[in-house]
Amino acid sequence: MTQTPTAPNGTPGEARAHFAVPAKHPMVTVLGSGDSLLRVIEQAFPRADIHVRGNQVSAVGDAVEVALIQRLFDEMMLVLRTGQPMTEDAVERSIAMLKASENGEGADETPAEVLTQNILSSRGRTIRPKTLNQKRYVDAIDKHTIVFGIGPAGTGKTYLAMAKAVQALQSKQVTRIILTRPAVEAGERLGFLPGTLYEKIDPYLRPLYDALHDMLDPDSIPKLMASGTIEVAPLAYMRGRTLNDAFIILDEAQNTNPEQMKMFLTRLGFDSKIVITGDVTQIDLPNGTKSGLRQVQDILDGVDDVHFSRLTSHDVVRHKLVGRIVDAYEKYDSANEQRTGRNGK
Fold first, then answer.
1. What are the DSSP calls for 317-343, one per residue?
2. What is the side-by-side strand order in the sheet with 176-181?
3. Phi-psi map region of 34: left, alpha, beta (phi>0 left; psi -120 to 50 alpha)
């Protein structure tokens, strides 16, 4: 792509840029079906006008926005060169990363580096990070022995950890995967649920099974579980064990108490890796019970080879409305805490 930034008519604060999209990239891959991607870009940069003629794209207007549009089209070309299509979501996330970088909030990673980092390919689909924080989380899993992924629902904490676990198993970095979570949710007690112990536990572990089915041939999963290569079990089953040569994931860790968290962390054996995921805003423990996930952040802060990755509503990869819901609840909780503080309660 060629770019030629100029100042139109010498107007202060304005700039003009021209882009030539290489012929190997059909314009529909750049602009989107029905110009859907172009509309996303235009809405994100209201102080710049974008015009398209053939494979030529020009932008004129606010100098800062024109410069960001230049960078955006560069990043889009880099992604398209890998054969990965651009989507509205990918364009929106690229714009958010570029704007954050412009405000001094970004880092060395570019949108193309984030969006083209493949973790795992399975049955025609590729699992990859979609946001800068997700990429940093995935990179931290590679670099550290124990990683905490803390953030709201829908930020990919567990899903990306599962993908890294399967990747580690397939590349023979570990010989088994252990997936666990506490069987405490929404105030229910196992003793009051119908069925055998397995039937009682199964609903709590179901999300882990669902993720596995996205990443492996479903026919292979029963065999891997029967051989012990993959183990899915409640947290209570971890007590008294030393877990060597394994990739271990503790999900829903906000529902552990401090004793359970310490018990789990001390299961770590040689050549193993632990990823602990949770959302400290969704604790289902009985009133008065401390969350082990909340406490451990103070205890292990600064400990070598332990990393805390924090994701936010900006990293939600479900429906856009989920991010807004998370923000609304955070705002409500913050206002409640301030009112409680003023009232002295």
1. -S-HHHHHHHHHHHHHHHHHHHHHHHH
2. 230-234, 176-181, 246-250, 273-278, 146-150, 306-310
3. left
**Token digits for 62?**
């606010």
Structure tokens at 258: 């401090």
Q: Which two tokens stand for residue 263?
A: 């018990």
Question: Which candidate, 129, 120, 225, 226, places its Cα nearest to that of 165?
Answer: 120
Joined together, the tokens standing for residue 319 give 């429906």
Neighbours of 309 (CB within 10 A): 24
Task: Please give the Cα distance from 289 to 13 (Å, whole number).
Answer: 57
Q: Which helix (H) or strand (E) holds 50?
A: strand 48-53
Amino acid at 207: P
CA angle 82, 83, 84 (to 5 degrees): 90
Q: Is a pLDDT exceeding 70 seen at residue 7? A: no
- Please tell me the distance from the alpha carbon of residue 265 to that of residue 267, in angstroms, as a whole number: 5
Written as six digits, the tokens of 8 are 């139109």
Which tokens go with 213?
């089915």
* CA–CA gap between residue 239 and residue 82 (Å, rounded): 46
Alpha-carbon distance 280 to 311, whole Å? 12
Total-model pTM: 0.79
Which burial class, exposed, middle or buried, applies to 180 when counting CB atoms under 10 A from its CB (0-12, 13-18, 19+)?
A: buried
Are 150 and 317 a contacting pair, CB within 8 Å? no
Question: Which tops the pLDDT comparison, 335 or 253?
Answer: 253
Specify the amino acid at residue 142.
D
The sign one gets for the Cα dihedral 260, 263, 265, 271 is: negative
Of all residues in the chain, what percent carry a pLDDT higher than 70? 86
Kindly report which listed range (64-68, 134-138, 325-329) carries the lowest average pLDDT score. Answer: 325-329
* Better-predicted residue by pLDDT, 236 or 37: 37
Structure tokens at 159: 């899903």
CA 254 → CA 30, 293, 297, distances in Å? Answer: 42, 5, 11
pLDDT band at residue 264, thresholds of 50, 70 and 90? Answer: very high
Helices (H), the chain: 27-31, 36-44, 63-81, 88-102, 111-115, 132-143, 157-170, 197-215, 221-226, 258-265, 292-299, 320-343
